[in-house]
Amino acid sequence: MDAALTSYLDAHAEEAQELLTRLCRQPSVAAQNLGMAEMADLVESLLQEAGFRTQRLLTEGAPPAIYGEQRGQSDFTLLLYNHYDVQPAEPLALWHSPPFEPTIREGKFYARGAADNKGEIAARLAAIRALRAVYGTLPITLRWIIEGEEEIGSPHFAAIAQQYASLLQADGGLWEGAGFDSTGRPELHLGTKGLLYVQLDVRCLGIDAHSGAAPILPSAAGRLVQVLSALRTPEGRVRIPGFYDTVRPPSEAERAALADQPDREAELRAAYQVERFVDGLTGVALRERYAFAPTCNIAGLGSGYTGEGVKTVLPASAMAKIDFRLVPEQDPQDILTKLQQYLQSEGFDDVQVTVLGMAEPVVTPIDHPFVQRVATIAES
Amino acid sequence: MDAALTSYLDAHAEEAQELLTRLCRQPSVAAQNLGMAEMADLVESLLQEAGFRTQRLLTEGAPPAIYGEQRGQSDFTLLLYNHYDVQPAEPLALWHSPPFEPTIREGKFYARGAADNKGEIAARLAAIRALRAVYGTLPITLRWIIEGEEEIGSPHFAAIAQQYASLLQADGGLWEGAGFDSTGRPELHLGTKGLLYVQLDVRCLGIDAHSGAAPILPSAAGRLVQVLSALRTPEGRVRIPGFYDTVRPPSEAERAALADQPDREAELRAAYQVERFVDGLTGVALRERYAFAPTCNIAGLGSGYTGEGVKTVLPASAMAKIDFRLVPEQDPQDILTKLQQYLQSEGFDDVQVTVLGMAEPVVTPIDHPFVQRVATIAES
Predict the structure, then answer these.
(1) B63: which of A145, A221, B148, B152 fits an S-S bond (Cβ 3.0–4.6 Å)?
(2) Does B304 contact A321 at a Cβ distance shorter than 8 Å?
(3) Which residues on chain B are in Cβ contact (under 8 Å) with A293?
């Protein structure tokens, strides 16, 4: 970083902290609809103070997303994402200082949202102010969207992004996140897996029976076991025909990046108290499986009596929750269709499939120039 | 029944009702240790009044079982079983009259225990009084044991039976129970299946993981599915080697009795809202399966998240409760050993097996002279 910039930042450190204090002092709990309008106003005015032309991106039922644009010296356009809402502060009794009264203790700044995500907004604002003060203008063009519902699962973000797609065009996009690996290098996350989350319900009887009738009554729990063992192998490989058809293997660049990652095996083994990973994997093969494999995971299983001791019951119904993590180019809708067809073809037409979640996988190619540019900056 | 006996019973109906009233007026809730000593005294004195030589069968920690013996004209010895304890009467607000103040409403007798099991004790006492009054003595020799813990699962009954085995020898034993079939014929139950109730626990991780780690972490739920599908076929047949070795097929007489049973299929279908029984069974084959087949029933299944909606979790552990109903000559201890050996041989040595219940199967052969004698009396 050049000396003029460093010296500006040093001189204005208190001002940056004041920014963070203003952001954290304003409650903005989306789950409780607390202070959201005031927070939107504050964010919009801070963006304006930092030289942005702002606009409110509105959609039915959501607090406004604040959008700002600021032209820079080059046409290269960077899209920034942040959110101005925070998690509920309860239970309040566990706080050492009030959640919305920023307090410094032993050199650390305490307030709800300080780390997620108001600190990141303040840091970006401080950097933008410094660039403008030292150079008069930004080196690149910025577009910035700050929504108000991330902590409740961004229920309206897809609608906003679709409605205002033209404003969000850019040469690259950044979301704060990731951290530093065990060797201290910054990590870049280049996408997220997709999701298909379903609940499978099997019902064989109208009511639970006494288990004395087990010789002649069909078992929902037994049937669910059959369904689940048809879905995945003992090691977790998915048995649905066509499930892996569109999965693309990692590129050479992606493999090289995996090989370059530090070894986290001991750390993972200790964290989960597990001796052996699936298929005995280790090294780069383990990292590749972790990063690039789609899954069929049993997230929940329930049937009959699960309390203490004995109940001799033949349960009328049984249930499993399954999450499929999907990778490019798997399409959750296509996977759902394949799942349903497979259940039909195996004779499990009595299994009720309820979709509880769907998301498409997204990935930024590791050899994309934008990724390389961010990596170079992060390493410098 | 002969005329003298009938006329005695008619003349002393009020006295019989007074017996029932005395029994029901005395609280005797084993679960709450309420009135147990007073009830034991009452039962013993009633047996003495009816001509029995009594004795208290004592074992550490249990209320006394009351035993009585009365010689009759013949040496044929009949053992009667009853219990003098009742279930807790709570919730009291749902009673139309106080539970321990017998009340007659519309010709019916209401009190806790009136039907289970004080009514049965009173009926037997009234019959014995009538026989003694009319004939001066009983036609056969009676031994009678009345315990005080049936409603809490008879935790000391096996110990008592073992300790006082010589007192309990008889040519046949009767316990009230059973009812009338759909054609109005009395039913005789000639035994009960045995039980092996186990809990299977699988743990693959020390703590639950986020399901993002599913590509590399072992799944306890997936492993449990494998164990369960190794234990039983889709239709419920048990896969443990040797499980059926000692099962004896029904005798000709037993088959004939099954053929003679009324058809309960429509009733069962309606009760359980089920269209088709296991293996499409119907008719005598269905009744035979119901009465004579041992089972491996999944009474409970639990792992991970089973609440509303989505939780993307890879559960650290999974659990199943299994009840095996056993038939002669299966031995629950032998079946447990075979289960454990099978799990070992299939590589499921990480499955923890906890025994929660065990009982041996018992059966009285249908062609036993005592059974035929009771059947003849019931039909006359």
Answers:
(1) B148
(2) yes
(3) 215
Q: For residue A319, what are the contacts with CB-CB under 8 A and spacing of at least 6?
A: A199, A200, A201, A202, A224, A300, A301, A302, A303, B306
Percent pLDDT > 70 in chain A is: 99
What dotted CATH number matches A194-247+293-360?
3.30.70.360
Q: Which two tokens stand for residue B25?
A: 């007026």
Q: Where are the beta strands (DSSP E) in chain B?
A: 53-57, 65-70, 77-83, 103-105, 108-110, 141-147, 172-175, 191-192, 194-203, 209-210, 295-304, 313-314, 317-326, 352-359, 362-363
A194-247+293-360 shares the fold of A3-177 = no
Token pair for B348: 């499921």
pLDDT exceeds 90 at position B348: yes
- In the block, residue with structure tokens 């006359």: B380
Q: What is the ipTM of this complex?
A: 0.85
Q: Which residues of chain A have pLDDT under 70?
A: 1
Going by pLDDT thresholds of 50, 70 and 90, the confidence category of residue B1 is low
* Distance, C-alpha B48 to centroid of its chain: 29
- Residue B300: closest CA among A47, A317, A58: A317
Query: Which of B204, B214, B301 is nearest residue A301 as measured by Cβ atoms?
Result: B301
**B168 to chain A, closest Cα gap in Å:** 29
The confidence score (pLDDT) of residue B126 equals 96
Arithmetic mean of pLDDT, B56-72: 97
d(CA A16, CA A114): 13
Record: contact A290-B213, CB cut-off 8 A: yes
Residues of B whose CB is below 8 A from A300: 221, 303-306, 311, 313, 315
pLDDT score for A1: 66
**CATH superfamily, domain at B3-177:** Zn peptidases (3.40.630.10)
- 3-state secondary structure at position B169: coil
Residues of chain A with Cβ-Cβ distance to B202 below 8 Å are: none
Q: Would you say A354 and A339 are in contact if contact means Cβ atoms under 8 Å apart? A: no
